[in-house]
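Renewal narrative, Specific Aim 1. Our central claim is that a sequence can be written position by position from structural information alone. The example that follows is taken directly from our test logs and has not been curated for this report. It begins with the structure tokens describing the chain, in the order in which they were read.
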């Protein structure tokens, strides 16, 4: 993950070589197995290192986005791209967030599932029914795009919600390879820990508007102008760890703001698919390799 970019763009190697995450980022990204990388304590800073590297290269190409956004941990990389914090701070905060989320998930028999082909109202109904069954916690965790909503929580309750979703007409319920019930109330302890961490982390005013997961809007659209550069951003991030990711609304907001082009910084192309399904007229470019970067240079 990122090895070819590391080799092709030596001016960015300091990011992958950073010790800010508390482990060897370069070895983890380039040489580890998928099972290890799937642990959120590693996933989060590794994905951030990739994103920060590509962001620096794109800026070197002269690209200045009109807005930034991300899904879950990608929101932190969006804040980095907007100038709220530098790469070292980004890596340190996400390493902390990953460990806090892992601690919150410890000992919980959990499951996350993508519900395909069912509208939000019916998924919400299924989740509410399962939640009242006494089987445990289950919640909507991601509204990714039309026809794809993720639910998560304690395994028995999630399975009950899956059965209800299928009964209501879902095409499929696809269990996801995750290491915890993220973006559910079961992440309350992680939210508390993150608030303490962010309280001592400096934030600069964003140079570019950022669309936040919790609201699907900019901070300025959600709160008083005088607070958006400090406590409110911290508050949105702490709330976000235990609340649904409204990515479909994020894309609709960008579309309404006149955005005609989205650049996804990978690895992976899932977000590009979400954008295409939500805003079919929006042009999308995915970057997950050095070859993709060279195509982007020509395209931009």
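The sequence written for that structure reads:
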């Amino acid at each position: 993950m990122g090895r070819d970019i590391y080799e092709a763009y030596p001016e960015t190697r300091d990011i992958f070589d950073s010790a800010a995450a508390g482990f060897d980022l370069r070895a983890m990204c380039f040489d580890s197995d998928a099972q290890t990388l799937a642990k959120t304590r590693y996933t989060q800073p590794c994905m951030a290192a990739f994103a920060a590297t590509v962001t620096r290269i794109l800026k070197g190409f002269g690209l200045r986005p009109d807005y930034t956004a991300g899904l879950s941990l990608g929101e932190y990389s969006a804040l980095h791209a907007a100038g709220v914090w530098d790469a070292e701070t980004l890596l340190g905060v996400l390493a902390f967030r990953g460990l806090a989320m892992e601690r919150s998930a410890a000992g919980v028999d959990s499951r996350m599932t993508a519900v395909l082909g069912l509208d939000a109202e019916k998924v919400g109904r299924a989740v509410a029914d399962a939640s009242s069954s006494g089987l445990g916690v289950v919640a909507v965790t991601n509204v990714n795009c039309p026809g794809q909503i993720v639910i998560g929580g304690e395994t028995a309750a999630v399975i009950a919600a899956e059965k209800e979703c299928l009964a209501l007409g879902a095409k499929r319920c696809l269990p996801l390879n995750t290491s915890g019930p993220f973006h559910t109330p079961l992440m309350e302890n992680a939210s508390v820990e993150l608030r303490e961490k962010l309280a001592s982390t400096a934030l600069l005013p964003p140079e570019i508007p950022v669309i936040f997961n919790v609201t699907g809007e900019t901070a300025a659209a959600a709160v008083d102008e005088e607070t958006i550069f400090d406590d409110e951003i911290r508050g949105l991030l702490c709330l976000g760890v235990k609340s649904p990711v409204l990515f479909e609304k994020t894309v609709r907001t960008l579309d309404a703001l006149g955005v005609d082009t989205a650049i996804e910084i990978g690895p992976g192309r899932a977000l590009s698919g979400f954008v295409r399904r939500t805003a079919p007229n929006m042009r999308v470019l995915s970057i997950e390799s050095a070859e993709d970067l060279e195509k982007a240079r020509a395209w931009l």
